[in-house]
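SEVERITY: medium
COMPONENT: batch folding queue
REPORTER: lab tech (J.R.)

DESCRIPTION
The queue accepted two submissions in a row. Attaching both inputs and their returned structure tokens so the on-call engineer can compare them side by side.

ATTACHMENT 1
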Amino acid sequence: MHRSFTPTAYDDDQPADQTRAALQDQPMRKYDWLRAHCLYTGYKDSPKVLRVGMIIHHYVNEEWGYAWPSRRTLSEELGIRETAVSQAICVLKNANAIKVHRIADLPDDIRRKMKRHSPRSRCYSLNMDWAGQVLDECGKGDKK
């Protein structure tokens, strides 16, 4: 699993090498994914894709690891058409930045907490492996 050093987590009481090592033992967080999303060059010329990814990131419940806004909600929040949202989600999925899941396929306890019961409803998860690869390629991943 890839790790990311986050300067905001720096502890002034510890030497930098110890802080860096402690951070490398932590799992990636959704904010590490956001950093990778912003650095990724595969869709740098598509502001709609960047905006849709950022708003999905905003909706991710860190406890469960899923976001479940409807495409209509995303469309209304971003002020773009639902078809543009769908296209951006497709680009994010094809880049492996996000995973799209049918809510009906999730464990019962998570489905009940989401309160979404339509068999056609979808949810999203951030692909942390993808984020780690992007950060490594940009030289922003593991610090040793």
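ATTACHMENT 2
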Amino acid sequence: MNMPYLREQTSKEKTRDLASSFPSRKLVSFLSLLLILLALPVTIFLVNHQQIFTGLALSTDSARVEAESASLSGPVTTGYDQNASGTGTTANYIQFGTTTTSGTGSLSTLLPDTTSNIHIGLPFDYNTTPSAYTGKVDYIWGSQYPQQPPTGVFHTFYVPYDRDDDTRWYKAAHDITWWKTNHPDWIEYQCNKTSVAYEHGDTTLVPLDITNPAEIAYMQQTYVDAALQGKLLEFPGAKFEGIAFDNPDYQNAGSWTGQRCGHYDTSGNWIQQFNGTSNDPAYRQAIITWTKNMQACIIIIPITQCLKIFPLIFPTQQIQIPY
């Protein structure tokens, strides 16, 4: 077998080959360093977010314990309705509060029967019309067309639960200047004690103290009762079937909550309420208490009892929100 002649490299050739390998080695080292530098921010990002998620999980767990230990005011009724799923021997619905008639509670006749098939609801109806959604949609959470149509669609009125609404959309609302003049002690601030705790970066909705019974009465009279009784100036005579409270968030951190911390009293003294963080037990408890108080105002007791601290001219009657 003929073998090719293998010539041994000279010293000069060895030196040249060795020198030629230097650029490739430098390139590999540079690429390795570049890869490490690119991966470093990603690693930091993942570590930070893992810490955030852990903190949020702890906050959520705490909130769950507090919510599960809370109790709502008034009686709780379970019962059977022929339009609900199940049999007559099972509790097909649960109702909080009292009923307007004697006997056991019943499902609202205003709610569409969704026992069978898949039904459609809309978060808002700003970009549609009653003629377009009638016969296709059963429920509209934030509706601008109460009683359109008068039957077949359940309309609820949208209310930011902890803020006065936008004066551009509702004539009964008030801006920050009005609140500073008339009820400066209702305005919520961040922990720096100077920044108003606006939520979602929206400075047209004034954040109010939900622990103040007078504030609850104001929201009840201005929005809740007016919507249910057809007294909203924007929808004269048109009654909503229910109320859609928005934005109760157990995590008191981020622009979506405004990071509430407290307010000033009528003498200008600072009242510390919350810590402005995602894990804020006092803030969570304030939401739970607000829920109980608002439920009592809407469902259980005459409205005038909600206005003992906030004296407004208001009819004595009981209002119920269908369940």
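NOTES FROM REPORTER
Residues 110 and 154 are 7 Å apart (CA to CA).
No errors were logged for either attachment.
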